[in-house]
């Protein structure tokens, strides 16, 4: 009887253990499915993917390229002509990696609060790169780093040469307007693999980061011809970016930040107009604010810290780690970014008593915020407590991600001829290819009429 009792006990324990293992497996499966759902429209470039060898070379080559900047002494405050024309060539087994204007982009990354170590971790993390699948007509290849912070996009030789040609003006624009809506280009490289043509590519901050709760994405050009995207069937894995006509009937509700956006759009489009550029897009994404993010009431200490951060023109440092699940990022309440002086930015609107800045320190910080007229003159704004503040604005109900991309199309002979042809074909209608002056004015008008 005792033996039978022991056998029953052992049998019962085995059943419970089996059930426990089964529950654990189900939980792990559910977690993986949940994370996979977050990769909607993005696909891992794994060993079976055609781009896998290329992305492996990119990760290795970029890691070494950034390592070179880490080991290089601090960049001088004043950049030289040699810095803008610098070209670093690094040979690897099976390919050659080249880095263009490395010292310039290093200093630019520093101005955005992006450390070289965190930049390197994003580019060369243990996670796989992600392929961005969208309804875009562009022939370029798009890759995202595994943490979704950085975008890699192939460019033509002509486009890269144009960027390097205007790079000094591009950097000067950000020095004058640190919170410009222009896409933040963090590096320019090329890779030449054995028996393949040289590929040029740029590295950019993702405008839509973090994207877990973004429910709508739009690519706006301020015109109507060919500016409608047919919605995909429910359940489609294509990450859709809609266009101008899809946006009709909607408005961007910014309240107090509207005047800042109107002014910054004017400054940025006039800059592009002076470069004789057109065909750029205003990206707009939005997500619903959590209840505790609405009607924020900022404390004095928090406002001073945010003002100091804004005046200094520094954004949240880009940090990344090797995520166990591809494409996952911290939730909004789990941010580990910290302000220069050590004050945490937790994503909540008010500082807790344990983290309040002492009054003596408040006075020291306030003294660094010089003349408020200087802030207004350069159209700087208070940065939100967020991981990608340079592209983010909060309205009463929604959080908006806004940035200007694709700034490489010059209004040359080819575009002038295209304008004449479209003028005849689409007489009386608004199409994309117009003069840079008209293009800039039209986009500013769109922002003015679609914001409240």
From TrEMBL:
GO terms for cellular component: plasma membrane. It holds the Pfam family PIP5K. Residues 329-343 have a biased composition (Acidic residues). Residues 35-451 form the PIPK domain. Residues 312-323 have a biased composition (Polar residues). GO terms for molecular function: 1-phosphatidylinositol-4-phosphate 5-kinase activity; ATP binding. GO terms for biological process: phosphatidylinositol phosphate biosynthetic process. Residues 312-351 are annotated as: Disordered. Keywords: ATP-binding, Kinase, Nucleotide-binding, Transferase. It comes from the Eukaryota. PANTHER family: PHOSPHATIDYLINOSITOL 4-PHOSPHATE 5-KINASE-LIKE PROTEIN 1, PHOSPHATIDYLINOSITOL-4-PHOSPHATE 5-KINASE. This is PIPK domain-containing protein. It comes from Engystomops pustulosus. The lineage of its organism: Eukaryota, Metazoa, Chordata, Craniata, Vertebrata.
């Amino acid at each position: 009887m005792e033996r039978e009792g022991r056998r029953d006990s052992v049998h019962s324990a085995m059943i419970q253990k089996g059930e426990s293992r089964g529950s654990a497996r189900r939980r792990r499966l559910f977690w993986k499915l949940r994370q996979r759902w977050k990769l909607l429209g993005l696909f891992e470039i794994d060993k079976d993917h055609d781009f896998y060898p290329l992305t492996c070379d990119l990760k290795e080559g970029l890691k070494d390229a950034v390592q070179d900047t880490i080991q290089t002494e601090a960049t001088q405050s004043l950049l030289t002509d040699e810095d803008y024309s610098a070209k670093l060539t690094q040979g690897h087994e099976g390919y050659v990696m080249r880095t263009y204007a490395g010292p310039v982009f290093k200093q630019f990354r520093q101005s955005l609060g992006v450390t070289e170590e965190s930049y390197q971790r994003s580019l060369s993390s243990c996670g796989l790169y992600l392929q961005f699948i969208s309804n875009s007509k562009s022939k370029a290849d798009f890759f995202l780093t595994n943490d979704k912070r950085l975008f890699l996009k192939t460019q033509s030789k002509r486009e890269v040469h144009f960027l390097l040609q205007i790079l000094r003006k591009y950097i000067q624009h950000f020095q004058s307007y640190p919170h410009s809506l222009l896409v933040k280009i963090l590096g320019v490289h090329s890779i030449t693999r054995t028996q393949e043509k040289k590929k040029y590519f740029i590295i950019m901050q993702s405008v839509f980061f973090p994207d877990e709760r973004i429910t709508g994405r739009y690519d706006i050009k301020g015109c109507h011809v060919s500016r409608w995207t047919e919605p995909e069937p429910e359940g489609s894995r294509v990450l859709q970016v809609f266009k101008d006509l899809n946006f009709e009937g909607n408005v961007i509700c910014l309240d107090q930040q509207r005047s800042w956006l109107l002014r910054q759009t004017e400054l940025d489009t006039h800059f592009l107009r002076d470069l004789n550029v057109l065909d750029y897009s205003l990206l707009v994404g939005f997500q619903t604010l959590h209840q505790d993010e609405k009607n924020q009431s900022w404390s004095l200490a928090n406002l001073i810290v945010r003002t100091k951060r804004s005046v200094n023109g520094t954004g949240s440092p880009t940090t990344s780690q090797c995520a166990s699940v591809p494409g996952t990022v911290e939730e909004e309440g789990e941010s580990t970014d910290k302000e220069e002086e050590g004050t945490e930015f937790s994503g909540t609107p008010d500082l807790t008593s344990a983290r309040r800045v002492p009054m003596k320190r408040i006075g020291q910080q306030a003294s660094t915020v010089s003349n408020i007229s200087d802030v207004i003159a350069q159209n700087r704004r208070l940065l939100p407590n967020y991981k990608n503040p340079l592209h983010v604005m909060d309205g009463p109900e929604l959080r908006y991600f806004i940035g200007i991309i694709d700034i490489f199309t010059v209004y040359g002979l080819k575009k002038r001829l295209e304008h004449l042809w479209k003028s005849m074909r689409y007489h009386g209608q608004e199409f994309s290819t117009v003069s840079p002056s008209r293009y800039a004015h039209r986009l500013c008008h769109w922002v003015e009429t679609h914001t409240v």
